[in-house]
Every structure is written in structure tokens, then in C-alpha cells.
Amino acid sequence: MKLFEWFQRQLSKALGGICVIVFAVLVIDVMWGVFTRQVLEDQPAWTEELARLLLVWLAILGGVLAYSGDRHLGVDLVVARFDPRSRRIALAVGHALVFGFSTCVLLIGGIGLFTERLDSGQMMATLGIRKAWFYLVLPVGGGLISLLAIEKILATLAGKGETEVAS
After folding, report:
1. What is the full per-residue pLDDT of the chain (167 aa) written as tens digits?
2. Which of 48, 53, 87, 99 has CB atoms 3.0–4.6 Å from 149's, for a disulfide?
3. Is residue 162 included in any domain, yes or no?
4. Does the predicted model carry a pTM greater than 0.85?
5. 35-58 burial, b if ≥16 CB within 10 A, otherwise e?
6. How many domains does the chain have?
């Protein structure tokens, strides 16, 4: 378990830094796009495409970061009324569902989407890069969430998970 805890701490630090950088670049890009459109009346087309790319990457990586620190959305009104053992089981089932979704949809589906776009040679028109790089965040995020979900399932079943639910 210590390896998982170390991995989760390192991942949170790295993702936090990456998200800050991506968000800063996104803000600068959008501000530049607005400035060039409103003041110069000639917005470069790449600003919109870059903003979309950065927003997708920020959303997925931010989701991984939120799940890592248990700061994601959750409905715990019913679970808060469970006894500790039932609460632990409910949390483990919830993490198992997250694992299933992230593995099947994000990881496996994302790998398929990434490889299809890579093989097709489809390009992002204004950025001049392959569209596959836009979708790479799906399997990356899915793989990370799957690993975190495994750790959370094991920790919850071992009684080390968070069994206190805010009411």
C-alpha cells in the first residue's frame, strides 16, 4: 500500500503542476484570441483550436487530479446513513464502477480512438499536428484513474479508505 500512497502523492503533485501550466496557457491563448479579434480585427484561427485542445486536456487531467484526492462530485446523502461496514462496501462498489468505466471507456476506447486517428493521418487544420494527440489524454487519463481506483478499492476493503462521509 505504501507504493500506492507514494504514487498517488507524486501523481497529484505532477498533475497539479501540469494543470496549472495548461490552464495558464489556455488563459493566455483565449485572451490573445479575444484581443486579436476585438482590437486587431484579425484573430488567428489556431487560437480556437488550441483552446479546444487545452480545455479537453485540462478537463480530463483535472478529473484525474480530483479523483486522486477524493475531491470529485459525489452523492453521499444515502451512504452517510449506512453503518461503517455497509459504507465501506458502498465505497468499494463505487470505486469498482469508476474502475470499470475508466478502463472500458477511457482506457480501451481511448486507445482505439487514438490509434484510429493516428492511422488515419488526420491533422488539426490550424495547429498542424495530428488529431490523435487531441485524443491521447483519454487513454492516459483512463489508465491513471484505473490505477487509482484499484488502490482505492484495496484501501477501502482493508478499512483504510475514507469511511467517514460528510452529512
Report:
1. 688 888 889 999 999 999 999 999 999 999 999 999 999 999 999 999 999 999 999 999 999 999 998 887 776 778 888 998 999 999 999 999 999 999 999 999 999 999 999 999 999 999 999 999 999 999 999 999 999 999 999 999 888 755 444 43
2. 99
3. no
4. yes
5. eeeeeeeeeeeebebbbebbeebb
6. 1
